[in-house]
Automatic annotation (TrEMBL):
Keywords of this entry: Membrane, Transmembrane, Transmembrane helix
Organism: Streptomyces hoynatensis
Name this protein carries in UniProt: DUF485 domain-containing protein
Organism taxonomic ancestry: Bacteria, Bacillati, Actinomycetota, Actinomycetes, Kitasatosporales
PANTHER family in the cross-refs: INTEGRAL MEMBRANE PROTEIN-RELATED, MEMBRANE PROTEIN
Record-linked Pfam families: DUF485
Stored InterPro entries: DUF485 (IPR007436)
Transmembrane parts of this sequence: 40-62, 74-95
Length: 129
């Protein structure tokens, strides 16, 4: 598999062969990258799913609580529903920060090595992304 040039006159990176890609899966840095991803995604997914199921269960079985007026005609169910959106955006922001700090530098290093590019990853040059 080859990639197309990103701009006129630039050469595409070397082809990533299947053998090189499979070998990368055995690299301890690749395993560390996967472990870092799971350390964020699994707990975040479990917490969000539990929070969402709480909302659904309360909506189905706790009518009295969910219909309690908080401000004007806005009830607890409305605020819980809006908090679902807040939680979604919060997790997205936290993941973005986590990925920029913990995942992207290692992924860039592995990608550069896999594609055989002679360019040193930005993290090693001391540049901030």
């Amino acid at each position: 598999m080859t990639t197309s040039p990103t701009s006129e006159g630039s050469e595409p990176p070397l082809a990533v062969t299947e053998a090189r890609a499979v070998a990368m899966h055995d690299d301890p840095r690749f395993r560390e990258l996967r472990a870092r991803l799971v350390r964020f995604v699994l707990p975040a997914s479990v917490v969000f799913l539990a929070w969402y199921l709480l909302y659904v269960l309360l909506s189905a079985y706790a009518d009295g609580l969910m219909s309690t007026k908080v401000v004007g005609n806005a009830n607890v169910a409305l605020f819980f529903g809006l908090l679902q959106f807040v939680t979604t955006f919060g997790i997205a922001i936290l993941y973005s920060r986590y990925a920029n700090r913990s995942l992207d530098p290692l992924a860039d290093e592995l990608r550069a090595e896999l594609e055989g590019s002679g360019e040193e990853p930005a993290a090693r040059r001391g540049e901030d992304a």
